[in-house]
Amino acid sequence: MSQPRSCRLTVLDLVPFGQTGQESRFFALRLTHPQWESWRPGQFVMLRPTSFGLEIPWARPLGICHMTARHLICFFQVQGKGTRRMAGLKAGDTVQAWGPLGNGFAVEPDTPTLLLAGGMGIVPFVGYVNEHPKPWNVTMLFGHREPISCYPVDSINEHVPLDSLREHTPGDLDNFIFSLQERMREYAEQKGLVLACGPLPFLRTVHKFARELNVRTQLSLENRMACGVGACLGCVVRTTQAWPVPSRRGGLVQTCNQGPVFWAEHIEL
After folding, report:
1. Quick one: pLDDT at residue 162?
2. Against a cut of 0.85, is the pTM above it?
């Protein structure tokens, strides 16, 4: 596994996805290769465009969508001042990158694996299905509110079967939760592996079913991060009595360096 390193990368292109209103709010950012020795799907990178100057001091944490032999791809949604500025990046602009950071998802080639994504939680699974040595053992269930064209679905669907459900009404959400439970029940019976990423309410539901059904499950948390290296203590999560380090059971650990991927039985949500 590569040790995190800081490097300056150049923007190759910024591709908008979908159209919500007058302008896109979803973008694939392609950067020059950071020369990491290795990485794991589920890890993230701290990015700070040079154009932030003194106006925006903090970098932004972005999940690694995919990395090839030639470039690094991140996918983001415009949500605030920083990502709004990132949406204006042009080819040739530079960004300071720090990564790869955190823990990635488990990869068990011969184990039936179910991917569960809510909204932007789809991002790390692009790299996961591309890197998985036996993708025929992997399937995915994706829940979302925005049009499906806003998400990098095609990059997943060309490798593994993907079922998607869009939430329009409260009834749609109920149907999605029922589908989550039934799919997780199926994988519990197969002694499979469940991997989930998405907003906190979604992860709480997956966490609840994981315990009820006794299915091996990993969760990737989308906690807010400022530093990305465990210094600011702004992204903590509470551990359970199953945490592997006895002295930290029932305490708080940083999502950025102890996660963002955790085994469900190790944390409280």
Report:
1. 96
2. yes
Q: What DSSP assignment string belongs to the chain?
A: -PPPEEEEEEEEEEEEES-BTTB--EEEEEEE----S---BTBEEEEEEGGGTTT--S-EEEEEEEE-SSEEEEEEE--SHHHHHHTT--TT-EEEEEEEESB-----TTS-EEEEEEGGGGHHHHHHHHH-S-GGGEEEEEEESS-GGGS--HHHHTTS-EEEEE-SSHHHHHHHHHHHHHHHHHHHHTT-EEEEES-HHHHHHHHHHHHHHT-EEEEE-----SSSSSSS--SEEEB-TT-SSGGGTTSEEEHHHH-BEEEGGGB--
Question: In percent, how much of the chain has pLDDT > 70?
Answer: 94
